Amino acid sequence: MAIGILSSILAKSETILASDHSSVVSMNLFVALLCGCIVIGHLLEESRWMNESITALAIGLCTGVVILLTTGGKSSHLLVFSEDLFFIYLLPPIIFNAGFQVKKKQFFRNFMTIMLFGAVGTLISFGIVSVGAIHFFKKMNIGELKIGDYLAIGAIFSATDSVCTLQVLNQDETPLLYSLVFGEGVVNDATSVVLFNAIQSFDLSHINSTIALQFVGNFLYLFILSTLMGVLAGLLSAYIIKKLYFGRHSTDREVALMMLMAYLSYMLAELFYLSAILTVFFCGIVMSHYTWHNVTESSRVTTKHAFATLSFVAEIFIFLYVGMDALDIEKWKVVSDSPGKSVGVSAILLGLILVGRAAFVFPLSFISNLTKKASYEKVNFKQQVTIWWAGLMRGAVSMALAYNQFTSLGHTQERGNAIMITSTITVVLFSTVVFGLLTQPLIRILLPAPKHLTRMLSSEPSTPKSFIVPLLGNENESEADQSNRNIPRPTSLRMLLSTPSHTVHYYWRKFDNAFMRPVFGGRGFVPYVPGSPTEQNGHQWH
Question: What is the pTM of this model?
Answer without folding.
Answer: 0.79
